[in-house]
């Protein structure tokens, strides 16, 4: 792994930063905001506004739209789904990446605030993504972009949703997609393609199990609508630009999806950045490769070819933006959260709470302990019925 990644992981361990497996989803969301705010390279310029993306059926999803510093006629439009294992991440953590992508590529970028687990199943996260993509397609002209140059993109869980959306809109009307950008995507939610030995800092097997505990419990993981690697066919999908980190447990997953797309005759550019950990693109303030990856992605976006023909547009009412007062309040709040003063205070508060909290059983360990307790109860039951030898074997196990 990149020495910078090892240093970051060692520093977090040194100061006693809580491991994600000990955190609730609410706590982990705050932790992720702090991580992104302190490791992401800032960019200036451009403009953003917030609104609600809605479907003709009335389904609504909050989105934030970014325009580049230099606007041009016929600009591409990118719909971005943030990462976070379907549990963490939000518009704030995706802000810098979306702003840079807009500025580097001169594209309009729509960031999607989809619903997260465990509050909702991930099938509803995918529904939100599809709603936002179809909305961006219908409103592209109002947003100053060319609907024929629509790209869906995302990192990690967002890459999963982007890939699944391409399969969906290939088979259903609603949007014509010109390209897909998948950054260390999880396309096989059975995790059969995951490398459990990859050196990925704080994003290890236990952390992945924590995300699965909160987002994949009770889910049919081979369902192709959420695991696009299991799609019946990968033919006829948009050109793909796949970005992978060599030290990322999901690197083999991304390679497998790239091979599946290529085998089906699709155009694929698969870039692998050696020794890079999961999340390195968002943390471009630490990892120069993250900045290089964003520049490469921006070149792909800027050069995307229009989809010939496409689905006819459906007339929509004008976009109703959030009020200027609401936007100003949001910008002030987020600007404050990015300052060293605010982040230092949040870090110290978290560390103090962690020190006073004392040891606590993580959800993953609690689940394991519950299983062991069940085995012990079975052993006692067998002992009471005279099966002493079997009971002893179970108890020792």
UniProtKB/TrEMBL annotation:
<feature type="region of interest" description="Disordered">
    <location>
        <begin position="368"/>
        <end position="397"/>
    </location>
</feature>
<feature type="compositionally biased region" description="Polar residues">
    <location>
        <begin position="382"/>
        <end position="397"/>
    </location>
</feature>
<comment type="similarity">
    <text>Belongs to the 'GDXG' lipolytic enzyme family.</text>
</comment>
<feature type="domain" description="Alpha/beta hydrolase fold-3">
    <location>
        <begin position="78"/>
        <end position="281"/>
    </location>
</feature>
<dbReference type="InterPro" id="IPR050300">
    <property type="entry name" value="GDXG_lipolytic_enzyme"/>
</dbReference>
<keyword id="KW-0378">Hydrolase</keyword>
<dbReference type="GO" id="GO:0016787">
    <property type="term" value="F:hydrolase activity"/>
</dbReference>
<protein>
    <submittedName>
        <fullName>Putative esterase</fullName>
    </submittedName>
</protein>
<dbReference type="InterPro" id="IPR002168">
    <property type="entry name" value="Lipase_GDXG_HIS_AS"/>
</dbReference>
<dbReference type="InterPro" id="IPR029058">
    <property type="entry name" value="AB_hydrolase_fold"/>
</dbReference>
<dbReference type="InterPro" id="IPR013094">
    <property type="entry name" value="AB_hydrolase_3"/>
</dbReference>
<dbReference type="Pfam" id="PF07859">
    <property type="entry name" value="Abhydrolase_3"/>
</dbReference>
